[in-house]
Amino acid sequence: MTTPEFREILDDYLSSSRELLERSEETLLAVESAEAALTAEDLAGLKRLFHTLKGNSAMMGFDAVAGAAHVMEDALSASGRGDAAADEEVVLLLLAAIGRLSAAFRSGEVPETPPPEWAEALADLSRLAAAAGAAPAAPSAREARTGAVPAPAAEDAGSGALGGRSRFLRVSYASLESLLELSGEMHILLAGVADRVRRLATRSPSEEADALSESLELLLRTFGLLEREVFATRLVPVGTVLSRFRRLVRDLALELGKEVDFVAQGGETTFDKSVVDELGEPLLHLVRNALDHGLEQPAEREARGKPRRGTLTLAARQASSLAEVAILDDGAGIDLERVRRRAAEMGIRTAEMDEASLLELVFLPAFSTRQGVSALSGRGVGLDVVKASVERLGGTVRVRSVPGRGTEFRLAFPLSLALSNALLVSVDGETYALPVSFLEETVRLEEGDLHRVAAHGVITVRGRVIPAVDAGAFLGSARPAAGRRRFASILTGGGRQKALLVDRPLETLRIVVKPLDESLGKPLGIAGATLLGDGRVVMILDAVGLLEAHLEELQTAAGREL
Amino acid sequence: MDSDPGAKGSSPPEPATVEGTVDLLAFADWVSAGQKGRATVEAAEEKTYVAFLIDREEYGLPVENVREVLRVGEVTRVPQAPAHIRGVTNVRGSILPVVEIRTRIGLAPLDPGPSARILVLEVGERALGLLVDRVTRVAKVRVSEIEPPPAEVVTARTDYVVGVAKGAEGLLILLDPARTLVVKG
Questions:
Q1: Residues A366, A372, A373, A378: what is their CA dihedral angle, to the nearest 10 degrees?
Q2: Angstroms from B127 CA to nearest CA on chain A
C-alpha cells in the first residue's frame, strides 16, 4: 500500500492527527494553568477531538492510536462535576498520554501495536474511566465510520462548536504552486502588453489607442487584485507555530525548576508558508535559550524584587514590509561582562565596541558554546545556527538586552518570499532588482559624501556614517575606470546598515522571485532572478546577504572565480 | 497475454472478437503492444541525434533529450558564476541557465551570430540551455557505427563525450546528455 494516493491519504491522516492532538493539548494546558475545573465546553471539545482521532485512526488501521483515543475519551466521563482537584489528575494524565502520542506522530512512526510506554500512560486513565462507570468497549465499526467521514478531521472538530460547515477547503499544495506559477507568468506577459500599448499610444495617438490603454489599466488593476489573492494563499498565520511552544515551555520550566508564564501574541499575523514551516527550529533554540539562561530561578527573582514567575512571550506582528516575530523574556538579560571575557578568549578586541556591537557577538560561530554566554543546555548548538537558519529563509535576527530586565530576539522576514516590491537599479549598464523589505532609502551622493576608512568605503548621510560597498565590485561589472557612483541604496536590518553604491535608481515595481538553478552556484549578494515586462531576466540582490557579508568579502567576491 | 509481442518482430495475435463485438480494451492493448515492438526493433539498429557545430567540430545529442531549439535572445550575466556559464535566459516565463561547451574546452566565448542557437537539453526534471554555433542536421546513426572515444581524449573534464560515429557526412562526436548537464568548472 505505498501508492501515491495512499501516501496522500496517510499524510492527511498524520497531519490532521497532529493537529487534533495539538488542539486538545492547548485546551488542557489552558485548564491546567488556570487551575480550574473542566467546563462543559472544554469537555465537549475534548471529547469531540478524541472521538475524531479515534475514528480516523480506526479507519486507517492504526488500532493502537484508536485504542488510546478511546481510553482518553472515556476518561473524560470521570470529569464534569466541577471538581477542580479531581480534574487536575485527569488533565495531567491526559497531557502525559498526548505527549506520548504526539511524540509518535512527530517522529512519523506511528506504532500499530501499543508500545509499553503508552500502556503505562493509559493504565491510569483506564482506571479513572472504570471508576466513573464508563463502559470500556473497543471502537466499533460504526463509530469508526462516523468518525471518518471524508471531511477533514480537523475541520470536523473545529467547526463542530459552531454547528456549521467549515469555511476552509483543502487544496493540494501542487495546485497552489501551479496557480502561483501561472499568475507569475501572466504578470510578466501583461507587463509586456502594457509596455507595447503605451508605446503605441505615444507613437500613434488615436481614440482607439486611448480606449485600449484605458481597458488595459482596468485589466492590470484587476489582475493586481487577483495576484494578491493568489499570493495570499501562500501566507499562513503563525499562530499554530507559536502556541506549539506552550507545552515545551511548561515541560522545560518544570524540568529546570523555574516558574514561567507563556504568552503568545499576534498569532493571526501571516508569514510566507515556507517561513512558517521552518520557523519552529530557530524559535525552539531561542525559547530553550531564554528558559535556560534568560529566566532566573524563582528564589533568585524574588531576591531581586521581581515576581517569582517569569514571563516568556512569543509575539508576532506585521511591520510595514516585514513580518516579525519576537521572543521576549523578563529574565536576567545578557551579561555584557561575560560577553567581553568570552570575546577576549576568542581574540576579539572589544574595547571600542558599543553595547549593540557587543551583543551582536553572540551570533558568532563557536561563541555561544558550552563555556560561552548562552550554551543551549550543553547541546553545543549556538546562536550562529539560529542566525543561519533565519537567513536561509530570507530573514534577519537582532538581539536587545537590558541587564536585570530581560532579553529580546527579534526575527524579521519579508512579507512574502515569492512576491516582493523591488527597486530596479542600474550598475555599469546592467539592471538589478533590490527588494524593498530591507531597503531604507536611496540617496543621491554629493561630492565629499564618500570616504575611505582604511581599505573600506563609508558614506556620510545626515551625520550618520554607514559602511559602503560598490555594487560593481561584487557583481564583477566594475570597469577599472568606473566613475564615481551617484547614488547609494541604504539597507537596514538585523541591527546593521550598509550602503550599496549604484549608478542610479530606475523604478519601483512588483517582482516575482524565482530561485536560481543550482548549476549557477550561490553568487554572494544574489537572491534569485526575476523577469521584467520586456522579457529580460534580472538578478535580484540579496539584501540580507549584503547586510551580513563583510566589506572585504564583497570586494573580492567577483574575483574569486576569475 | 501469452506471447511476447516484441520478440523476433512477430506481431501479436489479433484480439478475438465475440459475436461481432470488439473488445476495445484488448484491441487497445494489441495496438500499443505492436507499436512498442516496432520501437524496440528500431532502437536496436539506429539512434537519432541533433547535430550541431562548435568551432567547426560536429557534435550530437540524443534527440529525445533535446526539448527544443531556440534563437539566442537576451542572455543575462550571472555575477560570480563559473566561466562556462553564459548566463540565464527567459524561455516562456521560466529562467533557463545557458552554458557553453566552448569555454569548457578552452575556446573563447561565442559571439553569437544569426545562426547561433540554444539547445534546450532536458534530463529528468532538469533543463539547461546549451549555446552552440549552429545546428546542422538531425543525424540517424547506426548503433554499429558508434565507437568509444579515443582513450586519450576522454579526461575527467570531458567525460561527457561518450562516443564517435563515422558516417558519410564526417565525424560526429556524441555527447551524454546527463553529463553535459552536470556543470563542472
A1: 90
A2: 9
Please give the average per-residue pLDDT across B59-63, as a whole number. Answer: 92
The CATH code for residues A238-414 is 3.30.565.10
Put simply, whether B92 touches A (Cβ < 8 Å) is yes
List the grid coordinates of A510.
512588483
Cell of B53: 557545430
ipTM of this predicted complex? 0.70
pLDDT of residue A12: 80
What is the CATH number that goes with domain A419-557?
2.40.50.180
A6 within 8 A of A100, measured Cβ to Cβ: no
CA quadruple A508, A398, A417, A223: dihedral sign: negative
CATH of A4-160, one of 1.20.120.160, 3.40.640.10, 3.40.1080.10, 3.90.1300.10: 1.20.120.160
Residue of B nearest to A521 (CA): B81
| Nearest chain A residue (CA) to B183 | A519
Does the distance separating the beta carbons of A475 and B79 come in below 8 Å? yes
pLDDT digits (tens, 9 = 90+) for B84-106: 889 999 887 788 999 988 887 77
Classify each residue of B146-180 as buried b or exposed e, where b means 16 or more C-beta atoms within 10 Å of its C-beta.
Answer: eeeeeeeeeeeebebbbbbbeeeeeebbbbbbeeb
A561 in reach of chain B (CB within 8 A):
yes
Would the CB atoms of B78 and A523 count as touching at under 8 Å? yes
State whether B97 and A519 contact (CB < 8 Å).
yes
Higher pLDDT, A166 or B144: B144
Contact criterion met (CB < 8 Å) for B99 and A430: no
Q: Which of A531, A536, A539 sits opposite B93 (nearest CB)?
A: A531
CATH architecture of the domain formed by B47-181: Beta Barrel (2.40)
Which of B71, B76, B80, B179 to mutate against chain A (most A CBs within 10 Å)? B80
How far is the C-alpha of A495 from the C-alpha of B27, rounded, in Å?
72
B80 has a chain A CB within 8 A of its CB: yes
- How far is A334 from A368, CA to CA, in rounded Å? 12
Looking at per-residue confidence, does A378 or B76 come out higher? B76
- What does the domain layout of chain A look like in residue ranges? 4-160, 174-233, 238-414, 419-557
CB A362 within 8 Å of CB A339: yes
For residue B161, is pLDDT > 90? no
Q: Residue B76: closest CA among chain A residues belongs to which residue? A: A537
- Selected residue of A181, A517, A522 to mutate for chain B interface (largest B Cβ count, 10 A): A517
Topology match between the domains A238-414 and A419-557: no
How do the domains of chain B map onto residue ranges? 7-45, 47-181
Does residue B154 or residue B34 have the better pLDDT? Answer: B154
Chain A residues in contact with B123 by the CB 8 A cut-off are none
Burial A16-30 (b: 16+ CB within 10 A, else e): bbbbbbbbbbbbbbe
Instruction: Centre a 10 Å sphere on the Cβ of residue B82 and count the other Cβ atoms it contains.
Output: 16
CA-angle at B73, arms to B85 and B132, nearest 5°: 55
Most distant CA pair in chain B: distance in Å? Answer: 73
In the predicted model, residues of chain A with pLDDT beneath 50 are 1, 134-166, 369-380, 480-481, 560-562
Q: Is A262 left (phi over 0), alpha (psi -120 to 50) or beta?
A: beta
Residue B99 forms contact with A (CB below 8 Å): yes
> A514 forms bridges with which residues in the sheet?
A529
Closest approach of B61 to chain A, Cα-based (Å): 20
Rounded Cα gap, residues A560 and A273, in angstroms = 35
- At B25 the pLDDT is 55
Q: Do A521 and B82 touch (CB under 8 A)?
A: yes
Q: A188 vs B183: CB contact, 8 Å cut-off?
A: no
Residues of B in contact with A539 (CB under 8 A): 76, 78-79
